Amino acid sequence: MRKKELKNMEWWLLIVAIILTIIGLVALFSATQNTEHDEFKKQVIWFGISIIAMIIFMLIDYETLVKISPIFYGGFIILLIAVLFTKPINGASSWFNIGAFSFQPAEFAKIFVILFLAMIISKIQLKDKTQINKPLKILIILAAIAVPLLLIIKQPDFGTAVAFCIATAFMLFAAGIDKKYIITVIALIIIAIPLIYNFVLPEHAKQRIDIFLNPESDPRGAGYNIIQSKLAIGAGGLTGMGLLKGNQTQLGFLYPKTTDFIFSVIGEEMGFIVAAAIIILYVVFVTKALYIAKTSKNSTGTVVAAGIAGVFMFHMIENIGMVMGLLPITGIPLPFISYGGSSIITNYIMIGILLNISGKRQKTIFVK
């Protein structure tokens, strides 16, 4: 790798990610004191593996990754099918259990689906960038995303499915899709929401939406977790109750406190100042990712970076929104902070790709 590429890389992405990871590790250490810090220790191991994975993807030219993406896309389709035959955990068949560790193929699939879609979009725009607005071309892109999307919905994992949709939307927008398609999709979504709620969503998904709208309707049942989460965040005040001292966290009222509700742990024990700082750091991170998309040397880098930015933005908004009672609970992890090997490794691989793109960038603008 040339010195110029290293100099061009948007290192603030990595700095922000490491700061968020450290905050997450501190929160995990506090949240796992009753289990001898088991998940904290595993997360430290995953963090080390993540850095190695990030470096590997940073060193391999992103255009090469895009070219070989069909192989990985096909491989993860097979894994997404195979995981459906595993024993459900909390009602979802999303993990392969390997000894004391678990592997979630849907997390890693985000990377290679984005790369695969970038390859398709690049081929479509090879001779004429306006080809992206041809209905047949759009159908090809949607067909490519539909296969993993349907398999993930089947698990069921609606939160991750939405992340795929957001990534695709960001990529199409960055590729220069006509506004008429965007308006049409928004209109269809508005029309489809009541139909999906009444005829498509399983009962547990409907319950989550109902509880989101009125958690007090079942305070000791389905609404329990979100009520405890809001109590924890509210109790933290400006500076928090102190590490190892949060009532909801340490007395077992907050669950699952190491994954879905880790932000609630931070709000209770570290307070508003740290919680607000985390949100600011995420805004900086997503802004930097979008800037990389804007300044990429070619349209391939633009759509890949845009897709990755979409994934991070959705995860941040959804997780923080759900623990504050502003959005339905979906089980989406908070990037770099929530416990989970598949999640943190995926996040750092995506950073590696973003650094890769930024190292080769030139000042350009979104494709039009």
Structure description:
The protein is mainly α and 368 residues long. It has one domain (3-359). It has helices at residues 3-8, 11-31, 38-59, 62-82, 105-124, 135-154, 158-175, 179-199, 203-213, 224-236, 247-250, 262-269, 271-295, 299-323, 341-359, and strands at residues 96-98, 101-103. It has a two-stranded antiparallel sheet. Helix 5 runs parallel beside helix 15 (341-359) and helix 10 packs parallel to helix 12. The protein is globular, with a radius of gyration of 20 Å. It starts with a helix and ends in a 9-residue tail after the last helix. The model is unreliable at 363-368 (pLDDT under 50).
Features:
globular; two-stranded antiparallel sheet; mainly alpha; disordered C terminus; single chain; 69% helix
How many structural units, i.e. domains? Answer: 1
- Percentage of residues in helical conformation: 55-70%
Can you summarize the main beta sheet? 2 strands, antiparallel
User: What is the terminal separation in angstroms?
Assistant: 31 Å
Number of helices: 15
Q: Are there runs of 5+ residues with pLDDT below 50, and where?
A: 363-368
Brief summary of the model shown:
The protein has 15 helices and 2 strands.
What topology emerges from the helices and strands here?
Elements: H1 3-8, H2 11-31, H3 38-59, H4 62-82, E1 96-98, E2 101-103, H5 105-124, H6 135-154, H7 158-175, H8 179-199, H9 203-213, H10 224-236, H11 247-250, H12 262-269, H13 271-295, H14 299-323, H15 341-359
Antiparallel strand pairs: 1-2
